[in-house]
Description:
Blueprint: H1 15-19, H2 40-57, H3 64-71, H4 75-82, H5 88-104, H6 115-132
Helix pairs in contact: 2-3, 2-6, 3-4, 5-6
Amino acid sequence: MDLTFYFCADYDLSFLLAELPGVKLEVVDASDFYIEAGSRDQQTGHAIVNAFTQLWQSHQKIGQTAIASLADVSQAWVSRFTQRWGGWQRFKKILLLLLDSLYSGSNENFTDMSEDERWLAREYFPILITESE
């Protein structure tokens, strides 16, 4: 019989591995379960991706100003957030390709991307999309 125990705190529980042989220990950020438990940056990033997805789904023009308005942040903050992925244009390209691929069921759009862009699209952005649902 498997038993799952959730412990929500900022403690190192790695000692359990030695004390309880066979235990599976997984450390997960609380914001993975509840975005409001995340940092201000995590919450704002989540809001930006949600706004982007909302604009895409409603076939509206996707721009930093529209996203900032929906996410209730400044346009400068949207720009700063996208710098992690190489700037606004690269962020927009990756997220558009990912959304198209997720909803079309095709991976053909990934062929036009660099290896780094494919990693972001396949590994990181799906987490953000899943959290937005």
